[in-house]
TrEMBL record:
Lineage: Bacteria, Pseudomonadati, Pseudomonadota, Alphaproteobacteria, Acetobacterales
Species the sequence originates in: Acetobacter cerevisiae
Highest taxon, organism lineage: Bacteria
GO biological process, one term: inositol catabolic process
Protein name: Inositol 2-dehydrogenase
Entries under InterPro entries matching the protein: Gfo-Idh-MocA_inositol_DH, Gfo/Idh/MocA-like_OxRdtase_C, Gfo/Idh/MocA-like_OxRdtase_N, MI/DCI_dehydrogenase, NAD(P)-bd_dom_sf
Domain Gfo/Idh/MocA-like oxidoreductase C-terminal stretches: 137-322
PANTHER family assigned: INOSITOL 2-DEHYDROGENASE, PTHR43593
Catalytic activity: myo-inositol + NAD(+) = scyllo-inosose + NADH + H(+)
Gene it is expressed from: iolG
GO MF annotation list: inositol 2-dehydrogenase (NAD+) activity; nucleotide binding
Length: 336
């Protein structure tokens, strides 16, 4: 039997999820779409799923008996309310990151899901489905370079729109790295600090782009992440661990090299949809498979909470210029 999905938010990434559901995935159909600008949902329906119903409100989609599970790719500020409505209606929900814009918002979701007593939420941290990161994780798990000491990472976007704020470098971009290290290391963070190098002239000075974020983990691993959302040259994600007996590096995406005109040239990707295309396919397929099996396996609400609580501390550190402590609530039983 096919899982009937309802899609809330059919912007860039939302429409791409509709496309992968219609054209690539198995075991799922596009049943309903909602977008704040209705004509956009209608256009996406015409393009990928003419049989799907376009609803007038997100509530109508969530409550529809024709929708078994909900995929949320709307603006971040809408996530918490929509996730709560979906799980209260007894529906499984895939929610793009962040799960909520604050740790308190995530806590409300943890409470509600725990009271229901069943995992219903998967958060869209797609990197955990990327083959390069999976290779990295298996080497970390095998302790291939002995105890880990530190990690260096970079998260670069070619450009960010004029709407991008200093906080969004953390809440929208760094949050992926936070989740990635939580998953790779299997531990949480105890403190965060943000340093501001000289700003690029290619962006508004108020943005303070790039930023250098330092995270400390429970076991003392020190992580530095360069977040640079107007780097110009490409969409570039880097990660390397330094251990007692070596280094493990995230592989570059496989691209043919071209030798020509006295140069050896390897293209790099220009956007996240291209860089993580397979990971996005796999994460949504995993969600559908989890719904079919009645057991979700992808990043859970606890992962969403840890990421948001850590991001909140980074935003405090942006403002204070100080090292900020990170204190988490006890992990509810449902997620242990
Ligand atoms: C952006 O905000 C996202 O949400 C994307 O998932 C991420 O890949 C990108 O680098 C972020 O800046």
């Amino acid at each position: 039997m096919s899982v009937r999905l309802g899609f809330i938010g059919t912007g860039d990434l939302g429409a791409d999820h509709v496309r992968r559901c219609a054209n690539i995935m198995s075991g799922a159909t596009v049943s309903a779409l909602y977008n704040r600008t209705q004509s956009r949902a209608e256009k996406v329906a015409r393009q990928f799923a003419p049989q799907a119903r376009v609803t007038a409100t997100p509530e109508e989609l969530i409550e529809s008996p024709q929708v078994d599970a909900v995929v949320i790719s709307s603006a971040s500020q809408t996530h918490e309310e929509l996730v709560l409505k979906a799980i209260q209606a007894g529906k499984y929900v895939f929610c793009e990151k962040p799960l909520a814009t604050t740790a308190e918002g995530c806590e409300r979701i943890l409470k509600t899901e725990s009271a229901i007593g069943k995992r219903l939420v998967q958060v869209g941290f797609m990197r955990v489905y990327d083959q390069g990161y999976l290779n990295l994780k298996s080497l970390v798990d095998q302790k291939a370079i002995g105890p880990l000491l530190m990690a260096h990472a970079a998260h670069r976007n070619p450009t960010a729109g004029p709407h991008y704020t200093r906080e969004m470098l953390i809440s929208e971009t760094l949050i992926h790295d936070v989740n990635t290290f939580h998953w790779l290391l299997g531990e949480s963070f105890t403190a965060a600090q943000v340093l501001y190098p000289r700003s690029t002239s290619k962006a508004d000075a108020a943005l303070q782009d790039p930023q250098l974020v330092i995270l400390e983990t429970e076991s003392g691993v020190l992580i530095d992440v360069e977040v640079f959302v107007n780097c110009q040259f490409g969409y570039d994600v880097q990660c390397a661990f330094i251990g007692e007996s070596g280094e493990i590096r995230l592989p570059e995406p496989a691209r043919a090299t071209v030798r020509r005109n006295g140069q050896n040239h390897t293209p790099i990707t220009m956007g996240c949809k291209e860089r993580f295309e397979t990971a996005y396919d796999r994460e949504l397929q995993a969600f559908v498979d989890g719904v079919t099996a009645g057991k979700l396996t992808g990043p859970d609400s606890w992962a969403g909470y840890v990421a948001s609580a850590t991001a909140d501390a980074c935003i405090r550190a942006q403002k204070s210029g100080q090292r900020e402590d990170i204190r988490l609530i006890p992990q509810p039983g449902l997620y242990q």
